[in-house]
């Protein structure tokens, strides 16, 4: 949990946003970002490493308010990622290279750590497919062992709830990320830009929380769930405030 929270902190204090205006808080962002990065380094997990790489990709390829969302950064990152893939996998995911042996209890069979995780991630798919139809829709109490958190949610809570949650998260994030694209006019006010920043940064954090479901269901633990819900609420509120400002500005322009 600690490493994933540090990724969220780095997202919040990332110093290369197109933040309007200047303030003492904005000037302190590099310091807080560096501290969060240090804490991330000393509390590493493989899941957090994957989420860290995904977060950098979002900064460079998707996030509208990111200053590094440009062609030059995309080329450099692609080359760097290729180099890391070739040379750095054993440092990012050392557990796959330690030569240890694990036992798959379901099969009573020994295998390498990599084989163990491959089985752990693929096994829940077959469990879900073989479940009765109504259990697939509404879930069942005994969801069993699963490394893949999202599929574990499907088994325990059913497709109806999980897919509804997924659709809601995607809709909220999409609504936040398209704000800047919908209004590139020079008439956009400073207040509107700040609400865009609040909406997109919190939506970004929601993405990281949700993607953590690739391994276990950490976001549904006590405390983390409340943070996840808080960022969703802030994102929705910021989107609404931005749209109100746009409507007010359009009304003033029309009257003028």
Explain what the structure shows.
The protein is mostly helical. The protein is built from eleven helices and two strands. It has helices spanning 2-12, 24-41, 46-61, 71-87, 89-92, 113-130, 133-138, 149-177, 179-182, 190-211, 224-255; strands at 101-104, 109-112. Strands 1-2 form a two-stranded antiparallel ribbon. α1 (2-12) runs antiparallel to α2 and α6 crosses α8. It is globular and about 65 Å long. It starts with a helix and ends with a helix.
Short structural description:
The chain is mainly alpha-helical. It is built from eleven helices and two strands, in the order H-H-H-H-H-E-E-H-H-H-H-H-H.
The largest sheet has its strands arranged as 1-2
Oligomer: single chain
Task: Characterize the biggest β-sheet.
Answer: 2 strands, antiparallel
> How large is the count of helical segments?
11
The proportion of residues in beta strands is: under 5%
Could you say which structural class the secondary elements and strand pairing correspond to? mainly alpha
- Radius of gyration using CA atoms only: 21 Å
Arithmetic mean of pLDDT = 83
Distance between the termini: 53 Å
Order of SSEs: HHHHHEEHHHHHH
What structural keywords apply?
mainly alpha, two-stranded antiparallel sheet, 256 residues
List the helices and strands and how they pair.
Layout: H1 2-12, H2 24-41, H3 46-61, H4 71-87, H5 89-92, E1 101-104, E2 109-112, H6 113-130, H7 133-138, H8 149-177, H9 179-182, H10 190-211, H11 224-255
Antiparallel strand pairs: 1-2
Helix pairs in contact: 1-2, 1-3, 1-10, 6-8, 8-10, 8-11, 10-11
């Amino acid at each position: 949990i600690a490493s994933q929270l540090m990724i969220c902190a780095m997202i919040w204090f990332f110093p290369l946003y197109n933040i309007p205006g200047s303030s003492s808080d904005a000037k302190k962002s590099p310091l807080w970002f560096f501290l969060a990065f240090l804490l991330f380094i000393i509390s590493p997990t493989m899941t957090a490493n994957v989420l860290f790489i995904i977060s950098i990709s979002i900064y460079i390829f998707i996030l509208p308010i990111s200053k590094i969302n440009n062609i030059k950064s995309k080329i450099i990152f692609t080359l760097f990622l290729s180099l890391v893939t070739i040379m750095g996998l054993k440092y990012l995911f050392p557990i796959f290279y330690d030569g240890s042996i694990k036992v798959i209890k379901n099969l009573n069979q020994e295998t390498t750590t990599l084989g163990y995780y491959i089985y752990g991630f693929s096994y829940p798919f077959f469990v879900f497919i073989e479940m009765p139809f109504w259990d697939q829709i509404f879930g069942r109490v005994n969801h069993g062992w699963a490394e893949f958190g999202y599929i574990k949610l499907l088994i325990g809570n059913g497709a109806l709830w999980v897919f509804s949650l997924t659709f809601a998260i995607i809709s909220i994030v999409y609504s936040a990320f398209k704000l800047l694209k919908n209004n590139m006019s020079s008439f956009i006010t400073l207040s509107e830009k700040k609400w865009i920043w609040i909406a997109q940064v919190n939506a970004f954090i929601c993405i990281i929380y949700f993607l953590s479901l690739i391994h276990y269901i950490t976001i549904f633990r006590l405390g983390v769930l409340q943070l996840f819900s808080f960022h969703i609420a802030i994102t929705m509120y910021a989107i609404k405030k931005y749209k109100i400002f746009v409507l007010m500005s359009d009304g003033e322009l029309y009257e003028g």
